[in-house]
Amino acid sequence: MPIRENQYARRAREREKSSKKVLQRDAQPTPEEQLVRLEDDLRRLKVEFDIYFNGAAKRPPYDTKGRVETIIKRLADERTLSYAQRYLYNSLVARYTSFLQLWRRTMQEREEGHGHAPARLHAHAAAGVREAAPGNFVCADARSDVATVRSLYEALVEAKRNCGEPTDDLSFARFHRMVAEKSEALKERAGCERVHFSVAVRDGRVQFKAKADK
Q1: Which residue would you say has higher pLDDT here, 160 or 40?
Q2: Domain assignments of the chain as residue spans, ordered by start
Q3: Quick one: pLDDT band at residue 54, thresholds 50, 70, 90?
Q4: β-sheet with 194-202: strand ranges across
Q5: How far apart are the C-alpha atoms of 133 and 74, rounded to whole Å?
Q6: Cβ proximity of 152 and 197 under 8 Å
Q7: How many other C-beta atoms lie within 10 A of the C-beta of residue 78?
Q8: Of 50, 71, 73, 75, whose CA–CA distance to 60 is shortest?
Q9: What does the pLDDT average to over 30-55?
Q10: Separation between Cα atoms, residue 147 and residue 149, nearest integer Å
Q11: What is the DSSP letter of 202?
Q12: Residue 147 three-state SS
């Protein structure tokens, strides 16, 4: 009888361990884990695009690009990020936005150097790169959160330069003041605590938008 009880106890422990493993597999990754994954995927995406542009791959790495955009969108709504995590997130988004502009310009140059039907087909794919994944920045207090505003400023300036738009009159001090005033007015009007800013390129022109983050 004692042996049978020990067998039952051992099986119960094994079932408990198995259940814990399943729960761990099903658990969502933490923000820290997602940031690490985002940084790794960004590094991998740059390598894969370089391989594609060198002619060693037949199609752009849209799968990796899609994973990067999914993590960016997920973290944009993550309210538990610490100041340091939010700073890293904004830096990675700014890097991704800069990469997008570089890849868009490189793809355009490739299409302009050909004139064939396949090039026109690739141009539609390049348009997808132009339209996708704006740089997203979330800010609760634009006056004091200088790091986030700085990342937003750098993403905007980089996008403007890549599109050939002037940036000489866009100093950081002026931009910071404008963002702070716009953020405070939007929070008061919409009754929100945070403001979501985005930098994107549409049809070769830079778009800078702000909306309530509810």
Answers
A1: 40
A2: 2-213
A3: confident
A4: 135-139, 194-202, 205-213
A5: 12
A6: yes
A7: 15
A8: 50
A9: 88
A10: 6
A11: E
A12: helix
